[in-house]
Every structure is written in C-alpha cells, then in structure tokens.
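// run 5 | inverse folding | seed 20
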C-alpha cells in the first residue's frame, strides 16, 4: 500500500515536530508491515503491535510522534512458523534477519529489513550485516509456573545471553572489564560457532514451548522481568485498531499488557530511543552507506 503525498507533510504532533524525512522512514516501515500482515493472513498466524507501536495504536492511532520504528510480537509457536516461511515469501529488497540467516548477526529476535535503505547504528556498521531500515519482531515465550521457578529460569536465560554477547560481540565494547576479557578469551579458546551457541540459548528460551503456561514474556528484555511478565490470555486474540492509514492488530488484553510495563500509558512521556545513535536514510542503500 503506497502512502498518499499528504502523508509525507511535516506536522506537529503532541507539540513534537515530525519531519518529512521521518515520514519517509515511517512509510518504509509501513510497507514492511503490509508484508507481515500478508504473510500472517496466508499462514493463519497471529501477530500483535507491541511496545511503543502498541501505545501508538491505542493512544495516537499511529506512531508515537518521537518513535522511529515498529515493534511487533508473536507467541513463539507463530513466530517459529513465520521465520521459516518468510524467506520464501519475501521479495527483494526485503529480507528477514535472524541469528541463523546471516553471519555475525546476534539478536534474540527477528528483524525485517529493506536493503535499499539504511537503518544503521555503530554495532551494525562494525558487524557488517544488512542494516537497512527495519521493524522488530519479538517472540513471546512461555514461563514456568510459580514466581521462584520463573525467576530462576529467567536468571539462566539472562546469564546465557550475557555470555553469548561477551563471546561474540566483545570487539564492540568500549569499556571492557578484566572479567569480560577473561570470558571473551575463553570463548575464543572454545571456538564454538555462534549459531550453535545461539541454538543452546534459544533452546532455554523455548523450554516451555507447546505448554499453555499462565504467563509469557519477551525473552529479549528478560532483564526487566517484573514489567515483562504478561498473562497468556492477553494474547489469546486480536483487535484491529487504526494505525496511520491502516488497521493493525493489538492483543485483546492490550490494557493489561501496557499497564504491566508502563503504568499510565495514556499519559505521553517523551523517552529516548532504545536504538542510540541510529542513522536513518530512506533514500540511501545500506551498502552505499557502509562504503562511505
């Protein structure tokens, strides 16, 4: 679905200026969102607006004015099917990135990228993988029953991820500690292929796959477990809400999901982006940007 020219006009939302360039970035992401919708409809998969995108749908009927990306979530069962079929469904310039599809890519979730654009931070640049403008797709994993068991499982997930990052992303650290150097040295000595090590991490995340657990969480942000523990029933169905010039699915229990993490989510509060110094160029292919 192409955006009409008026979509790109600069405007003020909630006292914040949204530039034409940011509208162009949004348009790239919305086009990718259309592809997610198409694929999920074809294969009968559920996906949900999440995080800032969910707040945007509920509160603004579109992007939060200062947001720079789209966040989606899927229950792990649907997520696994999506990452398997996306490769054959997507056409250039769109690609789906996971730890298994691209060398040197280490994230606990999938990203859909447009190769003819640039959405690049310093880590992306150093790693050298596809860093077009993206949307994030997060898996929601089942959790063990009981507070103590859930905390213990979350602790091991968090520790294993930290270990992987030190082993495979240590070269990107600016202030490395002595302990970090020792662990990185151990990783180099063991020389475990990153994809193999990642599969162990993912196996721990999916330990309760197939069980109708009471709660789920986004394992990518498991370090914030209290705010990141949500009732599975909140994701039992979808409700479509306006988002810019589209309708986007939100979890049927969106109110509980948002209150758990944000409290009074209807009160606008400008927060810094989680992406740091992200370069967004809707008219420059990432390969051209990296060659500068």
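// decoded
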């Amino acid at each position: 679905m192409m955006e009409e020219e008026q979509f790109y006009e600069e405007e003020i939302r909630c006292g914040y200026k949204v530039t034409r360039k940011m509208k162009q970035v949004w348009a790239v992401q919305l086009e990718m969102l259309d592809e997610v919708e198409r694929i999920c409809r074809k294969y009968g998969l559920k996906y949900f607006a999440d995080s800032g995108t969910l707040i945007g749908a509920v509160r603004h009927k579109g992007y939060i004015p200062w947001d720079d990306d789209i966040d989606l979530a899927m229950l792990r069962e649907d997520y696994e099917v999506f990452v398997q079929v996306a490769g054959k469904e997507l056409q250039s310039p769109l690609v789906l990135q996971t730890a298994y599809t691209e060398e040197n890519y280490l994230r606990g979730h999938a990203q859909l990228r447009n190769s003819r654009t640039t959405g690049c931070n310093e880590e992306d640049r150093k790693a050298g993988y596809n860093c077009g403008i993206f949307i994030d797709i997060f898996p929601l994993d089942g959790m063990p029953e009981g507070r103590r068991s859930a905390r213990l499982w979350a602790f091991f997930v968090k520790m294993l991820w930290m270990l992987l990052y030190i082993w495979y992303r240590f070269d990107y650290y600016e202030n490395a500690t002595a302990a970090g150097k020792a662990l990185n040295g151990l990783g180099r000595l063991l020389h475990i292929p990153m994809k193999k090590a990642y599969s162990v991490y993912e196996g721990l995340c999916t330990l309760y796959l197939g069980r109708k657990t009471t709660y789920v969480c986004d394992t990518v942000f498991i370090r914030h477990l209290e705010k990141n523990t949500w009732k599975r029933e909140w994701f039992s169905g979808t409700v479509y809400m306006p988002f810019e010039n589209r309708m986007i699915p939100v979890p049927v229990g969106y109110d509980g999901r948002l209150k758990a993490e944000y409290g009074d989510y209807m009160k606008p509060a400008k927060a810094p982006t989680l992406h740091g110094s992200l370069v967004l160029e809707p008219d420059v292919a990432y390969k051209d940007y990296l060659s500068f």
